[in-house]
Amino acid sequence: MNHSSSFLRAAGARSGPSATFAAIGAVVLASLLAGCQRDAGDAEAPPPIRPVRVVTVEKLPGGETVTLTGTVQAKEDVSLSFRTGGQLIERLVNVGDTVEAGQVVARLDSEIEAQAVLAARANLAAARAQLADARNTVERYEPLVARGFVARQQFDRAVEGRNAAQAQVDAVAAQVAAAENQLSFTTLVADGPGVVTARGAEPGEVVRAGQMIVQLAREGGRDAVFDVPPRVLELADPDDYVVVALSADPAVTTKGRVREVAPQADPVTRAFQVRVGLAAPPPAMRLGSTVTGTVQLGGTPGIAIPSSALTSAQGSPAVWVLDPGDHRVALRNVEVARYELDRVLVSAGLNPGEIVVTAGVQVLRPGQQVRLLGDSPTATSAGLPPVEVRLGTGGGASTGPAATGAGTAK
User: Fold this and answer.
1) Is domain 50-58+301-372 in CATH 3.40.190.10, yes or no?
2) How is the chain split into domains, by residue range?
3) DSSP alpha helices (H): ranges in 49-208?
């Protein structure tokens, strides 16, 4: 039996009803004081430790990163063709074949050209015979002129005949060389090493002079070819390196610089073709492979944070910065350089390596302790134990933490 019950019984025994009512009032007052004590305990309870998502900020190079898709092409593409027309009777290579310098690629029907060579050589033989006769005549007349047996005029005509025969030999010899060249034009020979990338005629076709028979990608260099929009072309620095990666395997990368820019835009896409010379391209970057080129456009450097991390303080942009030591957050104003679709570029207010809250920023208070989402809570909030007040059937009451007994007034 507690003191309140004893007090009630004593008061009832000594003073009657008035004393009993006074005792009940005292019990009610004690209950009110216990409730105030619970309220004070709740007010002093620490705020809950909220889970948040964070990101460690890094300094980014200035400007905007642009990535384009292109293909790997040979630095020099050569269309091999005949210098004369005729019927194609043989093509010795196909697409994908590797050829060496001086290798025969294709042949034309050369019967007419071969006959022309034979005729030219026959004419050359006849001209040489005439030249030999003219020389003999001059050699016979020369000693006779000095002795007066041959007229000077006749000797001069012999010399002129010899010179004319010599000129005729030279002219026919040139015709023989031309005919032999024409005959050689019926055989198509690769002028350098490379890989056949296309063919333009099949055996049996009659081709004209200059018609592409095979296309050869020469060895010695490769380019990454991109279709670049005009805006990117205006902002990009042609001296900057372009990072080129293989689309099928992004780990295969190399660098290059802009080697050639088309002077006119494509009439359909309105983009400019840009060729980037690759420095030591990996073997995996074969001709025709799809690659991606990444270039950094001009601008001031800054720190990029997710858009969800941005809040406001006193009408200015701000972020919550986490102290990794005690896991408390502080609100800090920042200067925004540019707003993008899913991120914000901060020019001042943050330093590389600092930790910024990206989720849960709406419910934070300065100095509040937080935990990373997915981690176990480092602390729990606990209030004071509840205080029970129970009135007995006879008007008795008991107070105290988790009181289970009840006084009985008698």
Assistant:
1) no
2) 3-45+388-398, 50-58+301-372, 66-74+218-296, 110-185
3) 111-147, 152-184
3-state SS, residue 103: coil
| 213 pLDDT tier (thresholds 50, 70, 90) | very high
Task: Please name the residues in contact with 118: beta carbons below 8 A apart, sequence gap of 6 or more.
Answer: none
Terminal C-alpha separation, the chain: 12
Cα separation, 303 vs 338, in Å, equals 10
Contacts for 386 with CB less than 8 Å, ≥ 6 apart: 38, 401, 402
Angle between the N-to-C axes of helices 152-184 and 111-147, in degrees from 0 to 180, rounded to the nearest 10 = 160
Q: What pTM value is reported for the model?
A: 0.52
Beta-strand relationship, 98-99 and 212-218: unpaired
Give the fold, CATH level 3, of 110-185: Helix Hairpins (1.10.287)
Give 255's contacts (C-beta < 8 A, 6+ positions apart).
241, 242, 243, 244, 278, 279
Domain 66-74+218-296: CATH superfamily is Efflux pump adaptor protein, beta barrel domain (2.40.30.170)
As a whole number of angstroms, the distance between CA 308 and CA 338 comes to: 15
Least confident of 121-125, 195-199, 361-365: 361-365
Task: Say which residues have a Cβ less than 8 Å from residue 324's Cβ, sequence separation at least 6.
Answer: 355
Residue 388 has phi, psi (to 5 degrees) of: -100, 140
pLDDT tens, residue by residue, 259-301: 999 999 999 999 999 999 998 889 899 888 999 999 877 666 6
Cα 128-129-133 angle, rounded to 5 deg? 115
Share of the chain above pLDDT 90, in %: 42
Predicted local distance difference test score (pLDDT) of residue 356: 86
Q: Using CA atoms, how far apart are residues 138 and 162, in angstroms rounded to an integer?
A: 7
Instruction: Write the DSSP string, 258-296.
Output: EEEE-SS--TTT--EEEEEEEES--TTS-TT-EEEEEEE
